[in-house]
Structure formats: structure tokens, C-alpha cells
Design goal:
Number of domains: 1
Low-confidence stretches: 1-27, 196-205, 215-230
Order of helices and strands: HEEEHHEEEEEEEEEH
Helix content: 25-40%
Distance between the termini: 26 Å
Number of helices: 4
Radius of gyration: 19 Å
Strand content: 25-35%
Length: 230
């Protein structure tokens, strides 16, 4: 991400400015989760964790949790950033996409600050007669820096997956951070219901949001330390 784009979303400097990234508490780990529904829409959530190593960092995080103005401004920036990626993916795939319901939530678990950035991404997966196909924007050079998880809709199963996930089960597919997802594709079909004899026969831009938010977090930490003189 270039310096101009970082400056354009500089409001994060008032939000993600506490501590450095570090080991998360056992109950929460850094993740990138795509939770699909049967229409091809998805709830996308990126989770960041920060080590709140001293009282000053813990107090700063608590202050941020109360700062509704900064949170609202950051949510607007998150929406805009995701929308740019969605527009590029829409142009590549020819499938209508849209971003709504951007949200930022800050919580704390002991000495770990947790920041969840989420959006509702409409039209992320293509719908077919049999089910769903998820590929772009993840198929074009996306390499997650944290666990990447795809959650299928209830009653769906993955019938073809590239590359193979490190873990899978109960409609959940997970790839380890650092996995190259070139040519990424998940094909999911609806499992036959109890009263159905058989299923019906069937007839890039890289994803930059995760890296953008991570870069902004690092910039924000630097801003905090310069301002506080640490």
C-alpha cells in the first residue's frame, strides 16, 4: 500500500494505536473469516490482537473503546476500502457485488486487545444450480497473514477445494497464515435434505484489505509512541 493511501485512511491512527501485535489469548486468535449464506452473500471478519503490555496501553485501549466518534469514522474508511476491492472484483467477474454494514468492535481479554473489523459483502460467491462457487478476490495473489477461514452455509458441503485446506470439518475450511491461495476456489453444494432423493444435476484483483488494515495498525502504533514520547 502506498503512502498516499495510508494517509487517506489516517483516521485509524486514532483507533488502532495501542500496543504491538502479539500472542492472543487462547479464546481469540487473529483470523480472516468468510461466512457464506446460501445466496452467496458473506459476513467477512478480520480479527487483530494486540499485546497490552503496560498500564498506559491498557488505559489507551479503554479510551478507544469509549471513543464512538473515532470508531464511526474508521467504519466509514473500512467500508470504502472494502468497496474498492468489491468493485474491482465485480469488474473482473461480471457479478454484482456490494458492501454494507461495516463495523469495528474493540474488546479486551486480560492483557490482549482484540479488534474485529467486519463487513457484509453481498454477491461475494457465485450461485449455481447446485450451490456456490467462491474464488475472487482471493484467487488473485491473496496470501493471508493469519488463519483464513471459510464457513459454508448450513446444509452445504465442499465438493471441490483449491488449494487443499489445512483443516476442514462441519462446514468449516481453514488455511494457515502464509498459505499462497493462487487459483483459490471453493465449490459448495447443498446436501440433499431428508425428503429429497438426489441433488439436481448442474448445467485478478488481489485482496488488499487485510494488508491495508495491518499496515494502518502499525502506522497507528508508531503515531501513539511518538505522541506519548515512548
Amino acid at each position: 500500500m502506498d503512502a498516499n493511501r495510508i494517509a487517506a485512511v489516517g483516521v485509524v491512527a486514532t483507533l488502532l494505536l495501542v500496543g504491538s501485535t502479539g500472542p492472543a489469548a487462547a479464546a481469540q486468535q487473529p483470523t480472516f473469516v468468510v461466512e457464506l449464506d446460501d445466496r452467496g452473500d458473506a459476513a467477512v471478519t478480520i480479527t487483530y490482537t494486540y499485546d497490552l503490555g503496560d498500564d498506559a496501553e491498557q488505559a489507551a485501549f479503554a479510551e478507544l473503546q469509549r471513543n464512538e466518534t473515532a470508531t464511526a469514522a474508521f467504519e466509514d474508511r473500512v467500508h470504502d476500502r472494502f468497496e474498492r476491492v468489491a468493485n474491482a472484483s465485480e469488474n473482473q467477474t461480471g457479478r454484482q457485488m456490494g458492501i454494507e454494514s461495516a463495523a469495528v468492535e474493540l474488546t479486551r481479554e486480560d492483557r490482549t486487545g482484540v479488534v474485529e473489523v467486519s463487513v457484509q459483502w453481498n454477491g461475494l460467491a457465485a450461485t449455481t444450480e447446485d450451490g456456490l462457487v467462491l474464488d475472487e478476490p482471493f484467487a488473485s495473489g491473496f496470501e493471508p497473514d493469519r488463519a483464513f477461514v471459510v464457513v459454508l452455509p448450513d446444509g452445504y458441503e465442499a465438493t471441490a477445494v483449491t488449494p487443499s485446506p489445512a483443516e476442514s470439518g462441519d462446514g468449516r475450511l481453514e488455511w494457515a497464515g502464509g498459505t499462497a491461495l493462487d487459483d483459490f476456489e471453493v465449490v459448495a453444494t447443498a446436501e440433499p435434505s431428508a425428503d429429497t432423493d438426489a441433488a439436481t444435476d448442474a448445467d485478478g484483483p488481489g485482496f488488499g484489505v487485510g494488508g491495508a488494515v495491518a499496515a494502518l495498525a502499525a502506522t497507528s502504533l508508531l503515531a501513539l509512541r511518538r505522541r506519548s514520547g515512548t
